[in-house]
Request: fold
Amino acid sequence: MKKTMLALTAVGALASGSAWAQNAGDWVVGAGWLHFAPQDSSKPLTLTAPVRSVLAGSGASISDSDTLGLSAVYFVDSHWAVEGVFGIPPKFKLNGTGTLGRVGELGQARQWSPTILGKYYFNEGNAALRPFVGLGATYVWYSDIELTPGLQGALGSQLRQRPLSTSTTAKLDSSFAPVLNAGVAYQIDKHWGVSFSVSYIPLKTKAKLTTTTITGLPIATSEARLKLNPIVTYLSATYRF
Reply:
């Protein structure tokens, strides 16, 4: 009787592990906290027209940002998977440094950065704890770009224009960037789990500014080069189908 009970227990454990296993064709969706921490640096603000000049000592830093992240993982087999990650576009604030430090906040923008990753999960598919590594790419673009009155005034002074006689708009370049990813997933039961990952994105952009008169006549263009290089952490609750 004792041997029979042990055998049944072993079969039950194997059946449970098989039920929890991540196999080819499985989908795992997740939702949770995305945190962007830019490791930023910048080049000085440069007037490119009508005459090229550099605002010596000027710079900018980018704030951290948090948002809701959404993800979906498809398992090609028990180890290899493809993941798509998308966050509600976070809002970043750009603050002046150096000679622009007195201006304070220069502007803000929302960043869109949907990401696709190829991932490899360690341990077997029926293991509850599975570390993983990933490599992929993201396409980044920006919306809702706003410049503060402080920056508007600083640019007007640089152009020797009277206050409120000019207006400046900005555009940030879009770009592809690689994504390096690592983390760990824990399966609580057949369906529910948690996942934590850290990604590094070597990312840069160029801000192009156009200054016009109150009548809309362009009188100057400027640019600033920014390196964002964010470290992105993602903590999510997951559900497996």
User: Anything to note?
Assistant: The mean pLDDT is 88.
